[in-house]
Amino acid sequence: MRRRELDLNVPSGPARTAGVRRGAAGPARARALAGALSVAPLLLATLTLAAAPLRAQDPESVVTVPRTSQPPRLEDFLEARDGGRPAIMPRPDAQGVRVDVFRQREPGDGEPASQATVAYLSYDDSNLYVVFVCSDDPAQIRANVARREDVGDDDRVTIYLDTFHDRKRAYLFEVNPLGVQRDGIRTEGQSEDLSFDAVWSSQGRLAADGFVVRVAIPFRNLRFADLPVQEWGIALGRNIVRENEESFWPYITRRVRGFVPQFATLTGMTGVSGGRNVQVNPYAMLAQARLFDDDIPGHVNEGDRRIGLDAKTVLRDAFTLDATVNPDFSQVESDDPQVTVNERFEVFFPEKRPFFLENAGFFQAREDLFFSRRIVDPGMGLRLSGKAGPWAIGALAMNVRAPVEPWQPAAGRDAWIGVMRIERELGESHAGVLVTDREFRNSPKRDRLYSADGRWRIGDNWELTGQVTRSENSDHEGDWEFGWGGLAQVAFESRRFVYESRYREYTPDFAAPLGFVYRTGFRELKHETEYTFRPDGFVTQYGPNLQVRHIWDHETGSLEDREIEGQFNLELKGETTVQLTHVQAFELYHDVGFRPHSTELQLETKWVRWLAVDVSYAWGTTVNHDPADGLLPSLGRGTEAGVRVTVRPTSRFSWESRYNYSALHTIPGSTRMFSEHQLREKLNYQFSRTLFLRAIVDYQRANANTALFDDDPRQREWGADVLLTYLLHPGTALHIGFTDQYENLAIRRGLPGSEPEVVFTDLPRLSVGRQVFLKMSYLIPF
Fold first, then answer.
1. Rounded-to-integer distance, Cα 149 and Cα 180, Å
2. What is the pLDDT of residues 45-71, one digit of tens each?
3. Range 224-246 burial, b when 16+ CB lie within 10 A, else e
4. pTM of the model
5. How far is the C-alpha of 698 from the C-alpha of 218, rounded, in Å?
6. Rounded Cα gap, residues 384 and 394, in angstroms
7. What is the per-residue pLDDT across 386-419, written as a single tens digit (0 to 9) for each?
8. Max CA pair span of the chain
9. Strands 732-743 and 714-729
10. For residues 415 and 405, is the Cβ–Cβ distance under 8 A?
11. Disulfide: which of 193, 342, 382, 566 matches 185 by Cβ 3.0-4.6 Å?
């Protein structure tokens, strides 16, 4: 049995290892190569297209922003009325350039926005100012006094700034009608990164006929070229949730592939700079834990008293140099529950630790070859990220005190980790290289990886992506293994039609200990196509999606997996979606071939502003990947279900209830192999924009038929997690938390002189991990 260890680096719940759910695929080696070559005519056809660069649809979308001597005030755009809310008041005479032609991207491409929106832009020596004046019915506006970043269910306005004007990467600053902030980075070819945090100010106020939002973005929190006159890309957006509406100035369409390349041009700002920009962010954490040790058996007390320091300086407005000693890598948000029983591959849990989040896109290639959650218990580190002309650079060096698990040969030895990525822009395309290295002290073990990748745009709709990777790994005796991987992808995207074809392979000896590559020794070919109908009215869009994927063994060419997935999507107003999915698959597991199939129905809606519902149910057959000793894997009847309900009875209070269910039964007959139930109840109360209280109760119950399934026969767990946070702004915060976890265990004491033993009970009554913690951080700018 094992000792229950509570990670004091993760005060609000233990971090889990990374992973991804099971995929599928399949044909033979010769057919794999034939399938890959079948894409060649399509690639040649795309290369004959005119390679005109993507650009804003209106070439005249250029705005010259004026300097202001008096920063705009929210009150300047509101007109007082007796006995009620003020009215919005667009100001033709206001200082700043006026923008008022907002056009829809969704649901009607190019149509005028359904509600009038006016924005005013100006700047001074320190800030860029944007004021939004938004008309709307106040009874229909969705706005909550929520914690920072939690505005996804609200109406909101957004500012996008492509400060290097490279048409690739842009800051986003988003605000709901009550002034609650969310910020992030949008990078072409990557998922939107909402982990970026900056210090900026925002105000919002509801009015009798709409709302007004004022935003001030300090130049010191942006990175841009050191030039006398700035020329940036810019887009202003507005989301109206009940209408599924997303509108922008300038006109940004789905008829072309790419978002940032369609921005307008912002010019006229002279003599602006971040100035002297040094930040010091000390933190302190106190934690006391009471843990259960199976080997005693009994409880032990452990404490953690930690102080550390992060420091940041900006070099020539474009590069950020971060240094840290005993860094703040704690995580105060617990991972969302996921079903992990009977999963064939590792399950993915995202990074949430602050140090790794800023400019994370500078370290990302097409494949996840650097996954920062692999780094635990660092001692000190240095990080450089930024941009100079067409070059983007991300570099990291870090000392790690516990790089591997305790049972591995290098346990207890420090390691040095180095990561570097350099990317070169080629117009609207780019090419880059990534290198990662991990070296253990007093050990010959090394883990190195080299990768080169590129992404090329062809015309308005086509994109080609390629990547080649080599790994070099030595064991603790100094013996080396070498592996390689590669990827080639072609994609087409328009407003109605999407097509993607991808070929990918990794050799059996490939290893990326600092990355997230959940499978090696395969060749994969995948095709995906989607067509969307976009009618006017209550139904905003609908259409089919088809995916076909095959995976072959890299050495023998034998079919390992095949998956054919058909899906029908229906989207209604009120952010309501319905999805029906059917999958037919082939899976080779332990040299036995299976043909599982499944059907899933999912409904998600935010039809009313105080209620959000997400329901899914899947049924079919699946493979028992963990049979009991002496049994072979077998095909069983599988069922999965999930329900999530979020209720907001007031603008400050929310309650979320989440339930997951997974079960597997034998075929023929209906004997249960295993079942798992997960329940989470989560309460949030926002006292103000800076102070909130969160409470979580988790319950998990799993039953396994040990005659058929290799797992503990009964698992019952529940835990409580309470967190009070005062967040003045990113970097300055106070967290006070308490966690307690219980399992269905008990200590049985026998006759005098005999050893006590740990046994299972019916109910989870034994506390296995109790912790109270206090964490403080304070941002000091210079």
1. 8
2. 333 333 334 444 454 589 999 999 899
3. bbeeeebbbbbbbbbbbbbbbbb
4. 0.83
5. 41
6. 6
7. 888 889 999 999 888 766 655 566 566 788 999 9
8. 91
9. antiparallel
10. no
11. 193
